[in-house]
Amino acid sequence: MQRPSTEQVWTWLNEIPDPEIPAISLTDLGIIRDVAWHDDTLTVTVTPTYSGCPATSLINMEIETALRSHGIDKLDLKRQLSPAWTTDWMTEEGRQKLEAYGIAPPQPAGGPKACPRCQSDNLERLSQFGSTPCKAQWRCRDCLEPFDYFKCI
Amino acid sequence: MADIDQTALLQFLLRMGDNTLILSHRVSEWCGKAPVLEEDIALANTALDLIGQTQLWLGYAAEIEGKGQTADDLAFLRDAWDFRNVLLVELPNGDFGQTLMRQFFFDAWSSILMPRLANSSDPRVAEIAEKAAKEVSYHVERSADTVVGLGDGTEESHKRMQAALDYLYPYVGEFFLSDEGDAAITAAGIAPDPASLRAEYDDFLERVMAKATLTLPEDRFTHHGGRTGEMHTEHLGHILTQMQWLQRAYPGNTW
Prior knowledge:
By secondary structure, chain A is α/β, with parallel strands linked by helices. Chain A has helices spanning 6-13, 26-29, 56-69, 92-101; strands at residues 32-38, 41-46, 75-79, 103-104, 123-127, 135-140, 146-150.
């Protein structure tokens, strides 16, 4: 088989949804640090979002399944802890997809900019923790809807 | 990296990993029965972060030990006398206030230690700490907020928080005790001398307790024995019984 280019591999990875937030892909999330060929082995380097993220092993499995289905049989998945993942690595496209999905994207100021439902900025925090470790719970004081905020770390 | 005493390094990693493992187990005991849904979720998430950190610390410990064990083996197949966590994390949850006070004591220590470990001469220690530091920073934000909210809350919540503070404070000092192993680790630039964190810790505690309208005990007496493995509380055995029974009863079982 002809060795696919790393650009091609990135395109395939871009099609894999995040298991916990299927609205965005693994590349949108910014956790794929590197794709490289070492001789006939493809090395994909992944940085976990949170050390206890239960999706980490599932993510690795999905990467493996997807790339094998594209004919890559020699695959090495590497975990890289440092530099630690930061929400700064999330793509602009990923941020927009998050908001459209109803999750406020991370902001440098440390809280959501606007309610993803009505765009009001009259917001309050309910809890530093949401449905997953990467999210916090907020509520809009105008439309009164609670919503998830993707924490900035 | 300098030729560092592997026994001391292993001891250090076990101390780090056992602290987060045991506290994680304790915190997870609230899962499904915390006072409000948000707190239930927050505690479960905290436990999850701590177990993630445990996998990293004990995973490295198992490599240093060099006997072909994994992080899971260290967590599930060691007996109480081999654990190196501080006594504080073994203590029962008590009421919600006691749980949160214990969490704050731990988070405050961790939030001071992790950024320093991120500069460790051991690159593996540094990268684990760099990762953990981010998680700890919002753990401590929440536990400090909650201590203030409940301490400076109703008459009842204030009374309970003061009782939790009085009960738990004599366990705090163990974080800052050191032995020969710590001296070797400090000399190799792997971790700071535990005692060197105390001033910053005390300062932090005083600020939070003042806001929480709680009174710090003056007595500095401290219980110890956990981090050296000399003597654990009676509670550790009960935790391990619950945590390890499945793996002990059905060795090698997975799902």
